[in-house]
Amino acid sequence: MSSLLNEIKPNSDSKSNRKRVGRGGGSGTGKTCGRGHKGQKARTGGTIRIGFEGGQMPLQRRLPKVGFSSRVNLLSTEVKYDHLVKIKEDEITIELLRKYKLIKTKIQKVKIIGPCTIKEKKTLKDMACTKSVMEFTKK
Predict the structure, then answer these.
(1) Which of 29, 30, 101, 128 gives 21 a disulfide partner, CB atoms 3.0 to 4.6 angstroms apart?
(2) Around Cβ 75, how many Cβ atoms within 10 Å?
(3) The model's pTM
(4) What Cα–Cα distance (Å) separates residue 62 from each residue in 11, 59, 69, 97?
């Protein structure tokens, strides 16, 4: 059975003819063309935008706004203690963290968090830290 490319056809049931509307009452889609009688959706260009509820106050406007983004969080961040390995100095300050690009320049508050897997003990200056880091660092 050698079939040529110009003889290839799809299966008989896989393709159906497009619906031809407005071709007489006997076709099933005559007169109103399957759009029903009158109304916005029966008209040309009569589409209703998403969320429109016929003039009623839409659900997304009836519900209260939720969520809050703190502006304090834009100025504060957390740094893992293990990342301090990159810094060669013994006393760590916020300026040093900026210099070694561990924090962004606009950051003003830093909290050092654990776990502490590195051996070197660093002194933290003007920074908050977790209990595990406080026990590990130099006093």
Answers:
(1) 29
(2) 12
(3) 0.50
(4) 52, 5, 22, 47
